[in-house]
Amino acid sequence: MVASESPSHDVGALSACATIYERHLAAAGAHVERRGTAGSAAHLVATWPGDGPSVLLLGHFDTVWPRGQISRQPIEERDGRLFGPGIYDMKAGLAIMAAAMRILTAQHGPSGRPRVALLATSDEEVGSTTSRALVEDMARQSGAVLVFEPALPNGAVKTARKGVGEFEITATGIASHAGVDPGAGASAVHEIARQITAAQALGDPARGVSVNVGVIEGGTRANVVAERARAVVDVRISTMADAARIETALRGLSAVDPRVTVAVTGGVNRPPMERGPGVARLFALAQDVARGLGWELAEGATGGGSDGNFSAALGVPTLDGLGAVGDGAHALHEHVVIKDLAPRVALAAGVLARLGHNDW
């Protein structure tokens, strides 16, 4: 899977990677089909029959790495770790899902396991624009969602994730000569600087709210009063209440200089995954399964988002971070810890078996 590079926007590469994973899912006894829209890479949907409540397994096979990255970041085993682009985020997680279903199929017939659906998407790393509706539709049909994104560095699963928003602030002023007649102009650059200060003031680390202006563009030359400027803002929030508050505040920004107009577009595109009662019950079940396997499972929160944010926001019990133990997501040292792969498979299979008996 890692050798089959799959950048988010490369439809051909994504399709080739999907074909490999499709074979593994079919070998695990699944009925597999592709879902998608014209011009974009398809998503994989696999299903297994069962008698218990429906469970959704969730992951993605697109990566942040361009095609050819593998020549710079080769697949190699070193010091008990396996390195390669996309292995931690999250192709090892895909392998864990397929292996867990092979175990469940071998040990339990359809009457001893839940109905399982697996969704592997092709665009999670770029916002899930073509897959979000499918994720949400399949989550609504499920009693629980298990997400196989990577574990936290200590192997903990994720019981909370921040929501993610992206906003663009644009300022339109009046151009003029900066030396001959500066007073005739109204600088969009100066105004966007004021708006950046206002946006940054909305951050509240104690509440888990961060506001980061990551892109600034504006002006044409140093001797021209700038007519246009823009800033792109990343927002992370821990609760739906804060999501609404920050979105309202950013959309309410107005120009200090009355000759400049300010517009704000964008919004919160991934709601926060909050640690509600359903999440807590799923974690307690997983923790009990891990103890039966001889180890202690921890939980934690992260500032990054996943497709599990969508299912959790619908009120469907969701447990994230069931994938590989390792480090280096989106980094050159990306790797998984080899000795921890089998325990993660056993954990997933054990949780699924318990869910099949409605035992949670």
Topology, pairings included?
Layout: H1 11-27, E1 31-35, E2 43-48, E3 52-60, H2 69-72, E4 76-78, E5 81-83, H3 87-107, E6 114-121, H4 132-140, E7 144-147, E8 157-161, E9 163-172, E10 176-177, H5 188-200, E11 210-218, E12 224-225, E13 228-237, H6 240-251, E14 261-270, H7 277-292, E15 299-302, H8 308-313, E16 318-319, E17 326-327, E18 335-337, H9 341-356
Parallel strand pairs: 3-6, 3-7, 7-16, 8-15
Antiparallel strand pairs: 1-2, 2-6, 4-5, 5-18, 9-13, 9-14, 10-12, 11-13, 17-18
In words, what does this structure look like?
- The protein is of the alpha+beta class.
- The protein has 2 domains: 11-161 and 272-356, Aminopeptidase; 163-270, Alpha-Beta Plaits.
- Helix content is 32%, strand content 27%.
- It has helices at 11-27, 69-72, 87-107, 132-140, 188-200, 240-251, 277-292, 308-313, 341-356; strands at residues 31-35, 43-48, 52-60, 76-78, 81-83, 114-121, 144-147, 157-161, 163-172, 176-177, 210-218, 224-225, 228-237, 261-270, 299-302, 318-319, 326-327, 335-337.
- A 6-stranded mixed β-sheet has the order 1-2-6-3-7-16, sandwiched between helices.
- Helix 1 (11-27) packs parallel to helix 3 (87-107).
- The mean pLDDT is 96.
